[in-house]
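Researcher: Structure for this, please.
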Amino acid sequence: MKSASYAHLLFWSLIIFFISLMVITSTALDTVTPIEPLHDDKTLVSTGGNFELGFFSPGSSTRRYVGIWFKNISVMTYVWVANRETPLLDSFGVLQMTNQSVLTLVNSTGGVVWSSNTSRSVSNPVAQLLDSGNLVVRDSKDDSLDNMLWQSFDYPCHTQLPGMKLGKNFVTGLDRFLTSWKSSDDPSPGSYTYRIDPTGYPQPFLLRDNVVQFRDGPWNGLWFSSTSRLPTFSPNEVEFVLNNREMYYVYGNFSLVTNRVLDPSGHIHRQQWINHTQGWATYFSKPDDSCDIYGACGAFSSCNLANNPQCQCMNGFVPKSVTNWNAGNWMDGCVRSAPLNCSVSHGFIKYPHVKLPDTRYSWYNTTMMLDECRGMCLQNCSCVAYANLDITNGGSGCLLWINTVIDVKVLSASGQDLYVKVPLSKLGGDKKKRLWISIRATLAVLTLMLLCGATLYILWRRRKSKANCNASSKISTNNNNEGESELPIYAFDVIAKATNDFSVYNKLGQGGFGPVYKGVLSDGREIAVKRLSKDSRQGLDEFKNEVIFIAKLQHRNLVRLTGCCVEAEERLLIYEYMPNKSLDCYIFDPTSNNLLDWPKRLEIINGIARGLLYLHQDSRLRIVHRDLKASNILLDAEMNPKISDFGLARTFNGNEDEAQTMRVVGTYGYMPPEYTIDGLFSVKSDVFSFGVLVLEIISGKKNRGFSHPDHYHSLLGHAWTLFKEGTALDLADPLIQNSSYAYQLQRSIQIGLLCVQQHPEDRPSTSLIAVMLSSDCELLEPKEPGFYIGRCLPQESRSNDCTITSLLGR
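Model: Predicted structure, token format:
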């Protein structure tokens, strides 16, 4: 039996020997060592050992393919397939080199099922698998990487590797693009392609059966316009080249195990292998949301997830079909409310931080500046919008849109400025002109009137400030005006004297409302004074909100408001003084965090939970704080926690459980997904913030800005990963890691993870949290937290200046 097998093997080896001239090697470019043709039971490893070439059967399939995969990772990840359309039906396949410098894959009958179709022949051809994952055919006497006879990088499948170009060579006509697998078991070409379209100004498109699904936007000098956050890699690692010969995008960081993959469901992911977790971390995925659907809002409109509805016509435009628009079908788009008349003057409305419109309908110039671009658009009657081509170095280049703009998405934190042409009447130009003429004609009279008016205004403001103080002292803390209490009113000069004229030496800190100062009243009482800043994004509404809620809330874990002042333009809130400042001064400060051992941290967690329980359930008003964070937890002389800053708080009436706002406010890192994305808030919003606080108190790390060398998760994702791996205690601050605290730490981490779960209905109520913290009841297993993959966002914000999106598996 063995003799027959050896004879069979010898027979095929002799056949192959006479067919083959040169064979695949795995040596460096300057040393070529021929080896036997590649059989189904052999593999070829790249020069540096990063990649492997061989035969494989994906998933549950029994069909055989020749492909390339990552060598040194535990999850089998294929990056290229030769015969993706013509699989071998048995295990008798051979990959070999012909004397025409062509790589061929032959089956058991000697039939060629795939070949490299090398365009020219040399006398000494050799095939190599480079350590970039590129399979090349070259002349063994020519060491130049620029003179390849053939390379797999010119024929991508579903994966782009570092150094691989995506784009078109205008001279040869070679077009490199990604095509998805049909399924995880079938590498044959699927329905989705990702390619760069050179029409107008080039931009990548994701297509399904040649129908556009998603557009990545034009290159702006740093990245493609649709990128909704700053990339985590250096701009020097990415490049977009456009000239008369070719157009392509390439990225390169060869020190990382990374790739871009177009999956069978039509999503393109940028991912990196993390050794610590032994898995792929996806930190870039498109399309990501409903605004990424191509043309979701039609022409002359923008898509903004923060709006309701998310589609809005641009200024000067109205829905093309009011019926469809009101029904939520926005793809008909918008049209001008009045036809564009080229004989009248026009101006432009600026739309900041957007993904630029489809540039297939554009004209571009790389040398113009923005003012020249504006002038060019004004001169061209068909031009409807313009923008910078390149945003680097202050901006340069010109993009003009002809006749239409479509597929505009508001990106908030990134994006570009788009200028849309409208008649001057839409800008109020004629009105401004008439007003200016009127002002010039009556300037002398107005000067005199303004002087008189200023005097009257000062007198009126003084009288009004006294009325405001009286009104503030009688703000009702319930809807029926029962039990109304008068809050003490302080004169401004009294507070100024107490704070030494708001001396910088008395300043305790700075918040969204404004600076906070320490003061000492004439009777010796110490106070904390919050002074509304003139450039604060909070105003009278937040001031009144704070007075309304805190004046009537009485709980040992809520800060006590002792008075207020409204005088002229000044608005002051006077609190009891907290000598130990706020919680963030301890848990995030390496010089002070040793002052909080685990028993004290657990006591703080319990105190915050009791304060929340009072707000959500036990007070007469059912209150959602909406800005629970470490800096809003103050500590008294005994280090007891007190919740402060109720400027953003809201109440629920009756059986109301959830509300929605168009103005999302709060602090990034503490806001839950449903609030950040849809503006929905409830008591479960505070529960999410509490969970973040618990994990921060335990770890001594901020959720926002958290980084780890092995992954891109936020603190929530890091905690969840450790919990799943059974190493949750590794999350704890080394200062509190003690075997005697292990049970409480493990339990507290689990409670924190239960509070930050993605869906509000999965999070526990505040009353259940109190029970879990004070007893040994059995805890549920937490599900995936919201926002567990970190993003690059602004440092601190209390308004919706940026969008946060949860990365979910699809």
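Researcher: Any notable elements?
Model: The domain at 442-577 is CATH 3.30.200.20 (Phosphorylase Kinase; domain 1). DSSP finds 15 helices and 45 strands in the chain.
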